[in-house]
């Protein structure tokens, strides 16, 4: 069954190169005039994907020719920009398109734009912005300065490149000079003219430090607090399970269920149980908080969850997708409390193959709330007190480990790639000050939980796929060979051979990753490969998941913190017990899921950016105390403007600018990613060990500069 979006695209392709108005498309599809709103929605989705462009006079056409491309605009410090092109089907990889400042039109950093190419033979791609398809942000955070008429806001993000003119300042806000404010943009002016806006919120006075994470969060349009109506609705949710609800559910309370989470976790959305049958089959239970029972589609809480898309974890706080009354209480699988779950019981044989599975609307009572470190202590038998405390569940934990090890081996055999990067942890004291930054150690207990969750996600995805029920999928497409070919010479420079033009891509990548495990700079090789990959995203179409070698994958296991999981729960519930979805419901899902997938992907991307930037500002705050000190480091990146290094002592990265390298003229080899001094013969390459000194910590531009001492 084709979705409306696919049908709209087909109509435009059949009309190409001519363009059509919305009503032309409505008529060609045989729709009613009242359905033009749905067609406009489909056109917006196609525009965002770079398949369709809106031309003058409200006419739409297929982007079949290379004259117009779409992508994300990034502004450089000097005011010009680059557009990272969204590749469409059949389109060859192209370099980022340069946009001169005079050709930015109304575009600002982060916008999704349509670019009309400027043909200049022999030069790098250049274009001018034809249209802003979607604004990267609707608000900005900046510092306010009073003027004769209102005032101006100086954006915190220097990449915006323009200040905001504020004509009226409400007296009730009592805004002082230098105060940090949230500004809503009312007019995206062009060229070098100031943007126009109004103040909607005062965050703090001029003493509020640049490293305050709230500035980062609000600058990306996230409001940490929930609307009062949503909080009120959450408080009104029944906290006691009704007898009739209890009677109709599968009672798993006698079962030994365990939650395994970080030591500081507040919400627990998954629990595990296991039984080893006489024939050697593992009977795994994956029990997921039944958020969908409490959060109805279209409800106030549901709409807010959809808009948020995901919980965000910016270093020193949590910005939850659901109010605390749900996420930390009635939906959280807290120990020794009755909780509603969506449970999947999976029988897995000794070869790691799924033999049977069953879904239940259930009720459980978690028996053990364990941390990753406690589970690890059981595995290595390092702590007698822990062994004694969890003696009754040791056999379960060992069985879970044996199962997860087998599942991991099976995934590796079918082509799964281990691309996990070491995570960074910021340590705070009681006053909220950063006292240390460390690399998190990846434990066997982490892998145990991940393997069980991956299996449950696969089982749910395949179940819905084979029932031909519209659903959401977590997809990760195969990397473009052109992207892999770009890293071949870089890897060769590190002593790693990748023959991207021969053999299966996955086998080549597995061999590289295996070799990298035994190299001191192996994590950098992982990072190179990761950057050559496509990004995982949500989709209403099953395209498989390349990274974990899954033909069919979804997200089902974290409905407290991810909206797509909540959607999948609703769809699964509707299809359980042999129930059939009506044709109208299937059509509704088919039309609505693409927009949900796109919004969820966008919100995930936003959360990633916020978390990275929050980590960066706190790293800068911490490192400021080490100005002038020397550190051993590893070269982590090469650019034409200098050498990036990552410190051994702390997982932070900074730049050795060209001016801080030994005096010489330098040749930048982009293909092999190296920087060579023409006279001295010094060459900087990835993975090289160097001694550096911290010269500058720039909180405004969010960067660290190092001085070069010597090659180690």
Describe this structure as you would to a colleague.
- The protein has 712 residues and is of the alpha+beta class.
- The protein is 31% helix and 27% strand.
- It is built from 18 helices and 31 strands.
Structure summarized in a few sentences:
The protein is an alpha+beta fold.
Detail the topology: elements first, then pairings.
Blueprint: H1 4-15, H2 22-28, H3 36-48, E1 52-55, E2 59-62, E3 68-75, E4 81-85, E5 97-99, E6 112-118, E7 126-134, E8 139-146, E9 151-155, E10 164-166, E11 180-187, E12 195-204, H4 213-219, H5 228-235, H6 243-248, E13 250-251, E14 258-261, E15 270-276, E16 282-289, H7 291-294, H8 300-308, H9 324-330, E17 338-348, E18 354-365, E19 368-371, H10 372-380, H11 384-389, H12 394-413, E20 424-428, E21 434-439, H13 444-466, E22 473-475, H14 481-493, H15 505-516, H16 522-532, E23 537-539, H17 563-575, H18 583-623, E24 630-639, E25 642-647, E26 653-657, E27 666-669, E28 674-677, E29 683-685, E30 689-698, E31 703-711
Parallel strand pairs: 10-12, 13-18, 14-19
Antiparallel strand pairs: 1-2, 3-4, 3-6, 4-5, 6-7, 8-9, 8-11, 9-10, 11-12, 15-16, 16-17, 17-18, 20-21, 22-23, 24-25, 24-30, 25-26, 27-28, 28-29, 30-31
């Amino acid at each position: 069954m084709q979705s409306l979006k696919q049908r709209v695209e087909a109509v435009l392709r059949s009309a190409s190169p001519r363009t059509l108005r919305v009503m032309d498309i409505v008529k060609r599809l045989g729709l009613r005039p009242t359905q033009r709103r749905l067609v406009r929605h489909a056109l917006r989705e196609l525009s965002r994907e770079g398949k369709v462009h809106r031309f003058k006079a409200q006419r739409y056409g297929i982007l079949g020719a290379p004259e117009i491309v779409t992508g994300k605009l990034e502004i450089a410090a000097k005011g010009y920009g680059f557009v990272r092109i969204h590749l469409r089907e059949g389109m060859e990889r192209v370099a980022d398109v340069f946009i001169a400042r005079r050709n930015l039109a109304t575009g600002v950093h982060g916008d999704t734009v349509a670019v009309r190419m400027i043909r200049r033979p022999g030069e790098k791609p250049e274009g001018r912005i034809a249209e802003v398809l979607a604004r990267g942000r609707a608000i900005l955070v900046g510092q306010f300065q009073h003027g004769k008429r209102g005032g101006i806001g100086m954006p915190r993000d220097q990449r915006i490149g323009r200040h905001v003119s504020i004509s009226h300042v409400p007296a009730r806000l009592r805004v002082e000079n230098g105060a940090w404010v949230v500004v809503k943009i009312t007019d995206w002016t062009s060229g070098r003219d100031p943007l126009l806006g109004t103040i909607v919120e005062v965050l703090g006075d001029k003493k509020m430090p640049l490293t305050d994470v709230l500035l980062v969060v609000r600058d990306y349009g996230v409001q940490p607090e929930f609307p009062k109506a949503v909080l009120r609705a959450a408080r009104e949710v029944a906290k006691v399970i009704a007898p009739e609800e209890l009677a109709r559910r599968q009672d798993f309370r006698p079962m030994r269920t365990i939650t395994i989470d970080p030591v500081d976790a507040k919400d627990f959305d998954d629990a595990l149980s296991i039984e080893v049958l006489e024939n050697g089959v593992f009977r795994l239970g994956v029990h997921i908080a039944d958020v969908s029972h409490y959060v109805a589609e279209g409800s106030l809480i549901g709409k807010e969850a959809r808009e948020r898309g995901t919980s965000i974890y910016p270093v020193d706080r949590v910005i939850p997708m659901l109010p605390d009354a749900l996420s930390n209480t009635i939906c959280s699988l807290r120990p020794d409390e009755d909780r509603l779950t969506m449970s999947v019981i999976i029988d897995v044989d000794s070869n790691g193959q799924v033999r049977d599975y069953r879904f239940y609307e259930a009720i459980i009572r978690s028996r053990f709330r364990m941390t990753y470190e406690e589970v690890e202590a059981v595995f290595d038998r390092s702590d007698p007190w822990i062994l004694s405390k969890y003696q009754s569940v040791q056999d379960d934990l060992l069985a879970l480990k044996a199962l997860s090890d087998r599942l991991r081996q099976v995934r590796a055999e079918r082509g799964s790639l281990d691309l996990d990067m070491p995570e960074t942890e910021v340590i705070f004291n009681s006053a909220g000050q950063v006292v240390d930054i460390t690399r998190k150690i990846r434990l066997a207990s982490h892998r145990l939980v991940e393997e069980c969750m991956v299996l449950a996600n696969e089982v749910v995805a395949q179940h819905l796929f084979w029932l031909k029920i519209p659903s959401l999928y977590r997809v990760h497409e195969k990397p473009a060979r052109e992207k892999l070919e770009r890293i071949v010479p870089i890897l060769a420079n590190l002593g790693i051979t990748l023959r991207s033009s021969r053999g299966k891509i996955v086998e080549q990548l597995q061999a590289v990753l295996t070799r990298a495990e035994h190299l001191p700079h192996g994590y950098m090789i992982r990072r190179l490969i990761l950057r050559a990959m496509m990004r995982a995203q949500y989709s209403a179409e099953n395209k498989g998941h390349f990274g974990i070698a899954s033909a069919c994958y979804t997200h089902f296991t974290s409905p407290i913190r991810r909206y797509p999981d909540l959607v999948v729960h609703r769809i699964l519930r509707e299809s359980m017990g042999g129930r059939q979805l009506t044709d109208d419901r299937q059509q509704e899902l088919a039309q609505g899921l693409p927009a949900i997938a796109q919004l969820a992907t966008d919100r995930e991307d936003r959360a990633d950016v916020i978390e990275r930037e929050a980590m960066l500002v706190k790293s800068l705050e911490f490192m400021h105390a080490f100005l002038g000190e020397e550190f051993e480091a590893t070269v982590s990146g090469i650019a034409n403007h200098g050498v990036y290094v990552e410190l051994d002592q702390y997982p932070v990265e900074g730049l050795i600018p060209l001016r801080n390298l030994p005096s010489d003229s330098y040749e930048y080899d982009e293909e092999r990613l190296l920087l060579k001094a023409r006279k001295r013969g010094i060459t900087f390459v990835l993975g090289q060990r160097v001694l550096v000194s911290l010269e500058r910590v720039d909180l405004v531009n969010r960067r660290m500069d190092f001085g070069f001492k010597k090659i180690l």
